[in-house]
Amino acid sequence: MAHSPLGRTLVIANPAAHSGKGATGAEFARHFLTSYASATKGYEIRLTASMGDAVNIAASAASFDSVLALGGDGVIHEIANGLMKIAPDRRPALGIIPMGSGNDYARTLGMKPNNVEGALAQLVRGHIMPVELGLVNGEYFIETLSFGLDAAIALDTTTRRAHDTSQEGEALFFTSGLRILSAGSKGYACSVSFDGEKPLELRELILAFQVGPTYGGGFKICPDASPIDGKLTACYNSKIPSIPRLLTLFLLAKKGRHVNSNIIKQRHLDRAVVTFSEPVPVQVDGEELPYADKYEVHVLPKALRVIMP
Questions:
Q1: How confident is the model at residue 3 (pLDDT cuts 50, 70, 90)?
Q2: Which of 116, 157, 175, 279 is the most buried (most CB within 10 A)?
């Protein structure tokens, strides 16, 4: 086996991930790492029991060389936030074994989704790269932060998954999107300042800040975003479209072609300040973020070392 970057390894697994398949995935990871002893310098597997557990487990992982997140974007988000509590010179590298509905961070890194054996094979042959994180009001994000209708769609998919819908990934996001967007909206009044520039006064349906290109199980909201360019990428609407045009833009966003519209703007940035005068849906890596009057958004270049294929 080629040199493995894992070293002493901690696997943090969400047993409820992917409709309960996370528990089976964790057992497969145990079997794999036991069978291929040369892949690590010893390993431990810890299961989460409730939301927030992964943050605390990861925050106490300074004695490990790598932490592997087994689960969806939610548990990866928690683990990244936990790792950022560790001093940079002691912070383990992050690897992901994606087992979720959306798996957008897996797409960004090029990891095989919902395939534990395939993902582990990528990790043991992988290499470590420093990647950026986003930061909003003290919360780190690995892939996405969004406000408005797209956040409402993302949060609706989370609610529907909790009620055991048979849909997942792109199909789940698509059906939630059609339902919410068909109702129409006048947008949310907000002020946005990019990189200290004069604030823009907007009525936002979509305002997304991305580390990687996709959210919602593969919708390329910011097709030019990259986790290694040291920038966040923002996408927002400059005008309120009609409902038919809004639905068309939603369909085009699957392939990233919505950015060709003259009412959709995309830009790279280091920081932004977003203020709202009314409550607005907000999601970070697919999880609800509490409403605040002001959101301070920053990029942290090379903040986290990640094992990539």
A1: confident
A2: 157
Quickly state the pLDDT bin for 116 (edges 50, 70, 90).
very high
Domains 9-125 and 141-302 are alike in CATH topology: no
Task: Give every CB contact of residue 40 below 8 A, 6+ residues apart in sequence.
Answer: 4, 6, 7, 8, 9, 33
- Look up the CATH architecture of domain 9-125: 3-Layer(aba) Sandwich (3.40)
CATH topology of domain 141-302: Tumour Suppressor Smad4 (2.60.200)
SS (H, E, C) the chain: CCCCCCCCEEEEECCCHHHHHHHHHHHHHHHHHHHCHHHCCCEEEEECCCCCHHHHHHHCCCCCCEEEEEECHHHHHHHHHHHCCCCHHHCCEEEEEECCCCCHHHHHHCCCCCCHHHHHHHHHCCEEEEEEEEEECCEEECCEEEEEHHHHHHHHHHHHHHCCCCCCHHHHHHHHHHHHHHCCCCCEEEEEEECCCCCEEEEECEEEEECCCCECCCECCCCCCCCCCCCEEEEEECCCCCHHHHHHHHHHHHHCHHHHCCCEEEEEECEEEEEECCCCCEEECCEECCCCCEEEEEEEEEEEEEEEC
| Cα–Cα distance, 145 to 206 (Å, whole number) | 11
Residue type, 171: A
pLDDT surpasses 80 at 127: yes
Record the tokens describing residue 86, joined without a space.
Answer: 């560790």
Domain spans of the chain, in order of start: 9-125, 141-302
- What percent of the chain has a predicted confidence (pLDDT) above 90? 72
* Predicted structure pTM score: 0.91
Once rounded to an integer, what is the mean pLDDT over residues 108-115?
A: 96
